[in-house]
């Protein structure tokens, strides 16, 4: 036999039960045996006593016969009738002994026959002696008395023979019973000792095994306690509380593990012995206590969900309750994470449904379809939208190479056939665009992107198709627009050359001649002519400034200028130095703190800051000392208007503010347009391009510029440059 099987059998609890049953059976057997042996000895002793009693009564019976004869013979010999009463007494005593012998022999074989013979002889003896007694009188004895005497003597001899036989049989029976008695008295102690030793051995084995099982049970209980205390579930045991009518009205906490503290912040020692309705008041909600009472009274298992607020946080628990050993065991599992996960999953499923719906609708809007092509069988599966792109109802035909080929534009069949041939033998191109003719006869451009995969051990080609007809049309229009734009750029370049050379050259000559006339002939002119001449000089200067500003505006963004780190503090030093005379002439105070270093085109940023400074100097209030303040800070893109397209998370915000004449805030966008002026030419000089140049420079640096103002109080220009 396998040692493992033998070890399993030896350590089996069934074997322990067997030894216990064997020990108990041994005791019962020993007790039964002792009882039976005692009863046997009692029976043997009774049989011996019975035999002795029989022997005694036999002797007594025949003694009475002898006494009867003796009494009767004395009366004959002594011729005395007074012995009659003695005879009767002996006869009655003999009858009594005979009757007792009949009772004693019972069903003993042979005895009853002999007693029957004794009875007959006794009756004959009595008759003979009675007859003899009649022959006796005081005057003498009848001559026939001797006949009766002789007959009586013969009867007594016969009785003595029967007596000898009965006594001999009774002696043998007595010896047999004595032998049986001696045998039983010998075997009883021996068997008793053997059974007692066997019972002691069995009991010892059973005791040792039960002790080992007890140790195992104690170890198992300790292990179970450790498991119960270390489990992640609340495990509590309750015993019922009865009212005066014997009805269960509540339960008392008998055992509670440490998880009560982990999840409910309740110490187990504070729960023991208290009603659950007191320590767990939430059981009174949703009929939980009634359910637990039904669970106990009907001996069934129940489970339910409960929601409990612990430390201000909602927790979900699942409880299992079942009757056990006169009470109920409750196992509570914290499934808050599972509930939240389920809730999140449900929310995610809802979101996926929305996304699937959006995706389906997006495919319809984007005119996108998909397919799966089984290359070995030349069959395919088309999405519903693919059928719609072809102008068909979903599932209208079974897709295959030949059936789908009928939709391909005749001029693109060669491209399509080459594409299919490559797809069957090797990896097809990543994308191909060709034309189809829909069921309604409409020509469409189809763009296909696909690749091969293994599905079910077979090679299939999956792909996405898109109706790009509108895109092709837009691209064609865009090509035309690009061509027009290129022509416009060429014309603009020609205009720039004209402005920079052809227009400026006559203007320079005009200014040169004005300068000469002003030097040689100004004093000869009348006062009116001199005024006209000054106006001509100013108009020419304004014309030259306008041409230069136009050239500057047109070149911003077209020049391939290198960007580098520009220190705005150093740049402001240059600007204030350049405008130092104008700053001094109006008595302006230009203040700035630490300005950042930004990535940009240095000369464009210098022109930006110069134009803004010049704008503040130009539109100052003569009655108030001009104050120009420049500040800088870092802001998040969330602080900018939402409608703007922002390509950076953070921006440098640089603010130019002054206390000049200001402007109406309604014109905050208008002032950045080309040639837009808020004042008359005679009131303030300028071309109306300066702030437009500022806006174009900021936009060229992927930034934003805004203006705000209030008439008579000043203006603020805010510049946002990406970090």
Protein model, in words:
The chain is of the alpha+beta class. The protein folds into 5 domains: 6-205, Four Helix Bundle (Hemerythrin (Met), subunit A) (Up-down Bundle); 231-334, Beta-Lactamase, CATH 3.30.450.20; 367-467, Beta-Lactamase (2-Layer Sandwich); 471-555, Orthogonal Bundle (Helix Hairpins), CATH 1.10.287; 558-722, 2-Layer Sandwich (Heat Shock Protein 90). The protein has 19 helices and 19 strands. The protein has helices at residues 3-10, 13-77, 84-105, 111-134, 145-230, 259-264, 268-271, 276-279, 288-297, 336-366, 384-389, 401-405, 413-425, 469-520, 527-555, 568-578, 580-586, 602-618, 690-700, and strands spanning 136-137, 140-141, 234-242, 248-256, 301-310, 313-324, 327-334, 368-374, 379-382, 431-437, 443-455, 458-467, 564-567, 589-592, 597-600, 627-636, 650-658, 704-710, 714-722. The strands form 5 sheets. Strands 4-3-7-6-5 form a 5-stranded antiparallel beta sheet, sandwiched between helices. The mean pLDDT is 79.
